[in-house]
Amino acid sequence: MGVLQEILATKRRELDAWPHSHLPQPPSLRHVQLCRSPGRRLSLISEIKLRSPSAGPLSRTLSIEQRAAAYEEAGASMLSVLVDSQYFDGDYSHLGRARSASSLPILCKEFIVDPRQLEAARAFGADAALLIVRCLTPELLRLLVRTATELGLTALVEVHELGEVQVALDSGAEVIGVNARNLDTLELKPELAREVLTALPDTVTRIHLSGVSRVEHVHELLAGPADAALIGEALMRQDDPRPLLTKLVAAAH
Asked: What pLDDT is attached to residue 151?
């Protein structure tokens, strides 16, 4: 069983005992704007995750609130917050904690296979939610994109291979992320990610996911079609992420 299939099996067991039957009142939504414009060359999404299957435990020197504030201070355009508990030590409450310390829009990063997870994401403070093509049937993906839209959430639909692009487009996705990491093997394939990003139409917002850690990576993305890039482990390895993120933001503009 690959890593992704193991995670999905765990997620389905969690849903059988779903704890969020009584959700908080959702806060007002924050506008998600990641497209390139004359004043914005490449938006950087900074991630909060405490652990990952590929990297193991990550820095916990800063609290969720402190890290969210540090990312905003250093120039991030958006926050990504991992809420999976089993593999990433996350929690839906981390969305609200990050939101309380920052004015940036927030992406709920979760392995979403059920509309209830979208409802929880919205209730706990997300403005956008990740939907992964290889986790879902085309029919379920379309349902979840529609549900996200009805809730006011921006659906960020993730693909990895060229064969998944049409599935994402057929779902109605307006924001598509290309993950350079194969979620089954955890192997990074930056060349494949560039190929898939280039294949996306310019009618959608295009986001590069995974593998960005250096100024050179940002310069490479600026030369391509990506509107934004998500930076996760490189920042989460830093007890103080501001120096690195400040450099990456400067390179992105």
From this structure: 97
